[in-house]
Amino acid sequence: MLELSADEQLLQEAQTNLTQLQQELETAEIRQLLSDPHDQKGALLTITAEVDGVDAEYWAYMLLRMYCKWGESHSYKILLVEESCGDFAGIKFASLEIIGRYAYGCLK
Questions:
Q1: Higher confidence at residue 51 or residue 78?
Q2: Using an 8 Å Cβ cutoff, are 68 and 61 in contact?
Q3: How many Å apart are CA 58 and CA 17, to the nearest integer?
Q4: Which pTM value belongs to this model?
């Protein structure tokens, strides 16, 4: 219809409908991806520096910070359950509990 007539109101209505349809499609895709019964639950996350050394311990620390920031930005509650400081820098081990709906589904 838009090709036959240059109706501005019809164009705006079509763009609005297209935007709404794209949002509904994205929501449906996310629901399909998170359809496992466990996806709606919280998650436990463990980060371990497998080898000794400054680089591995610092990398584990950076991962810990990254997951904490991600959780905060998605409005999840983050609890540091356990942490073992590294010999050189960073951490050897950390365990996080991420509380919120779909935390497990998003992290898997």
A1: 78
A2: no
A3: 49
A4: 0.71
